[in-house]
Amino acid sequence: MIAALALALALALALVWANAPWQDAYVATSETVVGPAVLHLDLSLAR
């Protein structure tokens, strides 16, 4: 139950952030690459 509420809250915040005037920060954050490249796990946060 708590996990579902946390997921719903994260979804709501992401929707507001993506459609707000500061959406450039959202796009820049979603294009950030994380993970070890050696293991081919270097993926963007949007994936």
Q: Please trace the helix and strand order, writing H or E for each element.
A: HHEE
Cα-atom Rg, whole angstroms?
14 Å
- The coarse silhouette is flat
| Class computed from helices, strands and strand pairing | mainly alpha
Largest sheet: 2 strands, antiparallel
Q: Count of DSSP helices?
A: 2
**What fraction of the residues are assigned to beta strands by DSSP?**
5-15%
Could you walk me through the main structural features you see in this protein, from its secondary elements to its overall organization?
Residues 1-20 form the signal peptide. Keywords: Signal. With 47 residues, this protein is mainly alpha-helical. It has one domain. Helices cover 53% and strands 9% of the residues. It is built from two helices and two strands; from the N terminus they run ααββ. It has helices spanning 2-18, 23-30, and strands at 33-34, 43-44. Strands 1-2 form a two-stranded antiparallel ribbon. It is flat, with a radius of gyration of 14 Å. The chain starts with a helix and ends with a strand.
Which SSEs are present, and which pair or pack?
Layout: H1 2-18, H2 23-30, E1 33-34, E2 43-44
Antiparallel strand pairs: 1-2
Brief sketch in words of this structure:
The protein is mostly helical and 47 residues long.
